[in-house]
Amino acid sequence: EHETLVLVVTSTFGNGDPPENGEKFGVALMEMRHPTTSVEDRKTYKVRFNSVSSYSDTRKSSSDEPESKANFESTGPLANVRFSVFGLGSRAYPHFCAFAHAVDTLFEELGGERILRMGEGDELCGQEESFRTWAKKVFKAACDVFCVGDDVNIEKANDSLISNDRSWKKSKFRMTYTAEAPTLTQALYSIHKKKVYGAKFLMRQNLQGARSNRSTIFVRLDANNHESLKYFPGDHLGVFPGNNEVLVMTLIEKLEDAPPVNQIVRVEFLEERNTALGVISNWTDETRIPPCTIYQAFKYFLDITTPTSPLLLRQFAPLATNEKQRKRLEVLSKGLQEYEEWKWYNNPSVVEVLEEFPSLQIPSTLLLTQLPLLQPRYYSISSSPDLHPGEIHLSVAVVSYRPRDGEGPVHHGVCSSWLNSLEEGDTVPCFVRGAPTFRMPKDSQVPCILIGPGTGIAPFRSFWQQRLYDIENKGIKACPMILVFGCRQSQIDHIYKEETIQAKNKEVFKELYTAYSREPGRPKKYVQDVLREQLSETVYKYLREEGGHIYVCGDVTMAGDVLKTVQQIFKLHGNMSLEDAGFYISKLRDENRY
């Protein structure tokens, strides 16, 4: 409330919730909006930001102009704040930009003055261009509101929005040799400002049948006695992977000035400062990545597989010596429809871009300073810390596919393929990310329904192992827990089949149900069909009458189908309208029971 201008750029997580680093911000806004809410109610403050955002959806128009604020407090706690919001997301998911919409609505309800309508960036289509458009408009709007337009060259300032003081120029960056470099985990901490720990790779096993053409691996890690790698069932492990070896070496070979692969280098930036004596230039450390070999940079620190952005293509274009290739790069770098079609058809790594445009002469410092950082991948932990002390287990689908309608080169999932290539004793840089809203009920007698096709079963293995441990070591009674699993064929990809049967025999599960979508001689069946045909009354009884919990883990399409099915079940058995059934499910979510 002490700021005069607030610009918010945010993604949305899960069911319309804030991203991890925006949770406190979201809660603070909710508490400002509902100051008299009880402490107990505040515990549910991931409190459906998407229900707040749905209000804002009803007020959309095509104009950029901020609408009138007649319905809201002009004297609220943010009455002196001007604001605008940009949401990042993907229309492939429900609740597109829901948290951003909630923030936009809450700022207005708290008295803030919107200077520009909320912008949206869809990663499926032109996100970068959408953001640049919003950034230019919001900059101009802010200049107008604060009456600084006369003193600012708007066009020049707009240009600086898409480049910055550290955008690449060959004369501004150089590599120098150095003798020392931090360890891998220290370097990752330096880059991501996140504590990273080295777990030890113990073993992996392919869980799919011998006749399967796909691979799901069971991975065992030793936590190396790191206190910070302790976890609860339901938590996630963030893993910092390594890029494919062949891609890394091919990329190094394509650079015009690559240093020896084992030579530690430091990137330096020519900083220019205006002083009373004129412009002073001096070389300073570029701190984006610490000193390392160029091999380490491309292997562990930089993202070399995500399709090259329009901004990077714009920097590539003048480096093409072939005019036809240069013009094609200039067209793609505009980030418009032609770029989107090229990106989705080819899904090209930076190596494939250099192969498509072979006249490019790329200096090392361009990629070292402009490629995006390699981000961690998150996996649900598949083990109980009590049943397997000191260990972390993962269940990982190994991803590979061919772009160009199946005719292109094989692309491998970065992290899953890396985990599938490790040898015993190798280090896995990782950290635990808590999932406090994905926990088993404290009361072991509360009924639970677990729904997880494919590797969606991963977190539920931690649940059933924990319950098994508690039954055998803490004397708790058998619990009313039901598992609904889905896969293609019983003999091909029914992972953890024997383990779940053993758990049922030990009374961890009340029932096990499996939906096979490609079982020979049987009609297709999916997990939502099991709910509708075999568990309809049980779902209603557990959730409506017995205070039970339902957990869903897996891809977004399946989760949407399950949601619709549960909604229909409530409508059928609860004599509700479809809308009321939807509201009831939202209530379950607020109570962390769905």
From TrEMBL:
Subcellular location: Cell membrane; Cell projection; Postsynapse
GO MF terms held by the record: calmodulin binding; FMN binding; metal ion binding; nitric-oxide synthase activity
Membrane topology: Peripheral membrane protein
EC number, UniProt record: 1.14.13.39
SUPFAM superfamilies: Ferredoxin reductase-like, C-terminal NADP-linked domain (SSF52343), Flavoproteins (SSF52218), Riboflavin synthase domain-like (SSF63380)
The protein's required cofactors: (6R)-L-erythro-5,6,7,8-tetrahydrobiopterin; FMN; heme b; FAD
One GO location term (cellular component): plasma membrane
Enzyme superclass (EC): oxidoreductase
Highest taxon, organism lineage: Eukaryota
Database matches in InterPro entries: CysJ-like_FAD-binding (IPR003097), FAD-bd_FR_type (IPR017927), Flavdoxin-like (IPR001094), Flavodoxin/NO_synth (IPR008254), Flavoprot_Pyr_Nucl_cyt_Rdtase (IPR001709), Flavoprotein-like_sf (IPR029039), FNR_nucleotide-bd (IPR039261), NADPH_Cyt_P450_Rdtase_alpha (IPR023173)
PROSITE patterns according to UniProt: FAD_FR (PS51384), FLAVODOXIN_LIKE (PS50902)
Annotated keywords: Calmodulin-binding, Cell membrane, Cell projection, FAD, Flavoprotein, FMN, Heme, Iron, Membrane, Metal-binding, NADP, Oxidoreductase, Phosphoprotein, Synapse
Gene3D superfamilies on file: 3.40.50.360, NADPH-cytochrome p450 Reductase, Chain A, domain 3 (1.20.990.10), Nucleotide-binding domain of ferredoxin-NADP reductase (FNR) module (3.40.50.80), Translation factors (2.40.30.10)
Record domain Flavodoxin-like: where: 1-139
Catalytic activity annotation: 2 L-arginine + 3 NADPH + 4 O2 + H(+) = 2 L-citrulline + 2 nitric oxide + 3 NADP(+) + 4 H2O
Domain FAD-binding FR-type: 194-441
The family this protein is said to belong to: Belongs to the NOS family.
Entry protein name: nitric-oxide synthase (NADPH)
